[in-house]
Amino acid sequence: MNERVVSGRLSIIGLGPGDETYLTQQARDALREAQDVIGYAPYVARVPVTPGQTRIESDNRVELQRAKEALERAAAGRKVAVVSGGDPGIFAMAAAVFEAIETGDPAWRELDIEVAPGISAMQAAAARVGAPLGHDFCVISLSDNLKPWDVIEKRLEHAARGDFVIALYNPASRARPQRIHDAFALLRRVLAPERLVVFAKSVGRVEEDIIVSTLDEADPNEVDMTTLVLIGSSGTRLLPRADARPWVYTSRKAP
Amino acid sequence: MNERVVSGRLSIIGLGPGDETYLTQQARDALREAQDVIGYAPYVARVPVTPGQTRIESDNRVELQRAKEALERAAAGRKVAVVSGGDPGIFAMAAAVFEAIETGDPAWRELDIEVAPGISAMQAAAARVGAPLGHDFCVISLSDNLKPWDVIEKRLEHAARGDFVIALYNPASRARPQRIHDAFALLRRVLAPERLVVFAKSVGRVEEDIIVSTLDEADPNEVDMTTLVLIGSSGTRLLPRADARPWVYTSRKAP
Questions:
Q1: Based on the structure, what is the number of domains in chain B?
Q2: Residues A127 and A216 in one domain
Q3: Using CA atoms, how far apart are residues B82 and B216, in angstroms rounded to an integer?
Q4: pTM higher than 0.80
Q5: Is B41 in the same domain as B112?
Q6: CB-CB neighbors (< 8 A) of A20 in chain B
Q7: Measured between alpha carbons, how far is A155 from B184 in angstroms, rounded to an integer?
Q8: B151 and B112, same domain (yes or no)
Q9: Measured distance CA(B1)–CA(A210) in Å, rounded
């Protein structure tokens, strides 16, 4: 008998941004049931402690290796939780896990796998300023670690010409601070200077900082690794308030 | 003395799709604290009961009227929760509330308003099939109630030519069953026939039904009001499994 019994379970869990505010019931239940919790150290640190659980913290750069370790543990019969900030399905761990499955042990395909979606950074940022994602939008990662910059430029161009609201993930890194400047240069060639721009830094954390401006006035030097960038469409509007940051929302009507 | 004291609060709350699985801690807390819960009847029915709460159910078509009623109650000092399925910030109630604020009583701008994001249908659908939103994507509503069809066509064209994964909301209605057929005709002119397509019906509910196919084989007649449609990019891949629906994920690498 050479048959393998795969009795473990792998949950790929989104913690949302920041603290437990955004944790879903599904994520909470899966975290409680997990025997092993694996993730980038700051995410593991945010998981409510369950006695007896093994916690495995890894570096942010080794997503594929982390995915393989999680799959191996699940294949060995463990109940494993891989944790991600935001939504694991949006520029996060879920794609890395399925990539590892595609290239790994065929038995991994038959594993019991659950993806628990989470509130992604763009949703938390949008909620803080109003409803800028209230109509058609595009979501683009500016990271050129795994795709060439000309693919990113092509997508920015189509997103702008299609008059979408645009959410930019990974807009800057220490290794490539220039990306967001290049993206803004491109967008400024295509879009009107009065387009609304939101820089949402560290959303959901104590150091949260949100800047609302326009495409011609926004300073890309303000953007760091923790920033979610939103560029409005022609239907995105500003509602000034007396003693508070203005609301920003995108009309459901075409302009 | 003519000064108005605005002591109420308006929470615009996302319930996520389906049952309480996707409810966040923030949404749960806001629902418990609300004195008045307002929403489309099936959403109000999903809110856990808190004794003493007023529940106001409305028709789905009257979003702006519902928003105004919520704002009036909050301005009168009530703690009001407007509930939405999915994420209120994504094709849902939040934009309607801010639209009502823009055109309504200036005092409404100074109200204490909180948006509690929720898991949107595309996230739940993506989680069920793997990680199709793992890379750059566009989100488009096919509803032409409030925008002309040529704007939708322009956006579909740019989304397709930009090689984005595409999530389609409101793909069909009883009044306009033709929209999804028109959208597929357009996408088939631009995209390769083997592009992966997911129809996720009633995600998170008992009648959930998910169909994975390709652009040339998918039948738009399968699409109804409860369906979230996902069209893969050139980097979206299929992982066949022995006894289950295949996994679908979008590679983090450019093809």
A1: 2
A2: yes
A3: 41
A4: yes
A5: yes
A6: 25
A7: 21
A8: no
A9: 35
